[in-house]
Specification:
By secondary structure, this protein is α+β, with helices and mostly antiparallel strands. The protein contains twelve helices and 16 strands. Helix 5 runs antiparallel to helix 9 and helix 6 runs antiparallel to helix 8. It holds the Pfam family U-box.
Amino acid sequence: QVKASESSKKREMKIREELEGLFVATRKQHEDLARSKEKATAVLDSSMRRLDILDARAKNMSLRMDEAVAELEVIQSSINILKQERTKAHKNEDRHTNHVKEGCTYSHSKLPNCSSIALGDDPYTFRQLTLLDVQAATCKFSESFKLRPRRHGCIYKGKIMNRSVMIHRLHSDSIKSSMQFQRKVYILNKVRHPHLVTLVGVCPEALCLAYEYPKNGSLHDHLFGELNSAPPLPWKIRARIVAEISSALLFLHSCKPQMMVHGGLNLENILLDSDSHCKIADFGTLTAEDSKDHPALDSGLLAHKSDINSFSTVILQLLTGKQPGSPGLASEVRRALSCGKLSSILDPTAGEWPMEAARRLAEFGLECSGDRPELTPDTVRELEQLHLIRGRPVPSFFLCPILKEIMDDPQVAVDGVTYEGRAIREWIEDGRAVADLKLKHLGLTPNHALRFAIQDWLSQPQW
């Protein structure tokens, strides 16, 4: 009986241990489930909060979309009203004839699909624009459409008849009378040149002149625009552009009975077409007679000289790639030219300049910065040939080891190397010939054979 009691006690203890183990395991599972529930609840709360935020954003976007649709309907309605008013205005154009005194007349004639004005027997025509036309083209002269300010007004970009145009809105105080505006229009319509932008429309009501707008940017964009905004211009195109500008300026300065001046030539108003030919803008607001009213341009001669000086700056900037307003640019180019170091200041983005072309452009640019009286047809013809120069590879032994340029006066030093005479003499005077080249003595011997070879090479045709 005692044995039976002990056996029963052992079984009871074993069962108790098993129950305690089961209880501990069950409690642990319960605790794990509670923690999982807390985590799931936290995730659910976070998701619900995000869902509320997204729902609020969706409602906001829907509200904005409704507002945008309503605004679009208003804009479309305004466009329809503008079209109706423009149609009415065009129907009334045939009833008006503008007269310009001193033998200049506007005669109104209807052309297929276009209302235009013809000046006397002049074959050129342009579109007569209404105030609604220019307001629609510039979004009512919006600041976002403004290209640049001008002394006599502002330049805006726009589209008229699906054509990109520049619209020059003149300041009212720059035009003394409607007759003066009509006279300017008459003159501008007669001024046609391949490298001047063409007048395509006029709005007397708003004192606006519309010109063609070449889309390849300005010289300023290509030289100093933001990264990748416009590709750099090779030297051949730069040299050709100089010739084209000279041709256009010569044309303006040769106008009869009165010389015309640009009065503000710079990189921003020299535009490029799709083939990188230049088109000069912002011209024609000044004649030699108009310049009397401007203290800075108190005579036709000074106004003419101002154009030539501005042309000088453009040439030197095309050569060097220096920013507009760089102090002492002409002095820097003159100094480099006189020291035989012109290549050190040339714009490397233009490629390998033929030194003959670069030197001639630098000389011409410096001449224009001085008291050069005028451009001549011979000068223009000479400039037109510079971009045709072939960039021949220069034999390495023609180059001075110091200047890296073709030598004019080759001199053999004691180390057996030939240098440009001017350069090696400067090194001798500065003491660098002994310190850097370690020359035992400073005697120089003219290298006549090399000089003759260089002269013969330079005399060969490069066209």
